[in-house]
Amino acid sequence: MRIGIVFFPTVGPADKPAAQYFDECLRLVDLAEELGYDHVKIVEHYFFTYGGYSPDATTFLAAAAGRTRRVRLGTSATIPAFQHPVKLAGKLAMLDNLSGGRLDAAFGRAFLPDEFEAFGIPIDESRRRFTENVAAIQKLWAEEDVVWDGEFHRFGPVTLLPRPVQQPHPPVFVTTAQSLDSVADAARLGHHLQTVPNAMSREGLEERLSLFRAQWAGADEPRIHLSYPTVVNEDPEYARKAGRADDEANTASFRTAVESWRKVSSEAYPGYGKLAEKLARGADFDAKVGENKLLVGTPDAVRGQLETIAEWYGDDVTLSLGVHSGHLSFEDAATTLRLLAEKVLPGLFPLQAA
């Protein structure tokens, strides 16, 4: 099992200045590189405290690339529907070059109605736009004199510069939290998978992973990334207090971002109309820890959680740990990374320290 970190900010100007948050995250990138973590990832969202401090993952990852030499750099995920495929393919190819071929390119459909409205994109077109744009980006990376005649974009012949370092293209991941169809489509197209255990039951995740593995048609081994908010501290009471505060803030941020689903419906997102109502009822922090949806506790407690996750989902999965949404201090996040590296992972899933 490989272990990395993911940044999903859920803070805004009233909580912490953006410049301070980015500085803290880049210092954590340095620490992840030093301690031997597998990867660093960051999301793309807009407008809300739910991810809004990261409207462009490539900008942050370019900064991370300039201060690291080993750790892989991942979008988690960038949204093809909101950019022309030539533009996004070029930005990601440039990042692959700046990092010396360390890019993992994850793409997502997006799901927040306010984001689609702001970009003037009909939300009902999201799946078709996603499928077309990812295919166009892969073609631009892998081929020259590309001609594209799609439903939404027409261009060519063009040859993208720079060419990606990784050939025929960087690893492609699909990020999905709800749709079984998206999981099956990703597997059949040879795209790797990213998903969020906190968004579903254990049985639901097992169903998705079984489907993905059964439908896999890629040329290499399938890769599965699972994301977990994580707080580790030697003091069990402090760990749970901090973990609870972080989870409650993250949930409140998500609740605000999905509020528009109360007045929006889309056949492309069945069931999302009930999302705001479900979140309004809240979720129990202790239950989420008990179900291993949050990794919170002492080193021994979190080690036990990781052992159980490996038993449930396989030790071939990769974990992306959300250690800094911005509500806790830099010192809390750094403590989590150090305790994992020094007391949790040795003898279990050792890191590859530089």
From TrEMBL:
Pfam families, per database record: Bac_luciferase
GO molecular function: monooxygenase activity; oxidoreductase activity, acting on paired donors, with incorporation or reduction of molecular oxygen
Matches recorded under InterPro entries: Bact_Lucif_Oxidored, Luciferase-like_dom, Luciferase-like_sf
Domain Luciferase-like residue range list: 1-314
Top-level taxonomic group: Bacteria
GO cellular component terms, semicolon-separated: cytosol
Keywords for the protein's UniProt record, in alphabetical order: Monooxygenase, Oxidoreductase
Name by which UniProt lists this protein: Luciferase-like protein
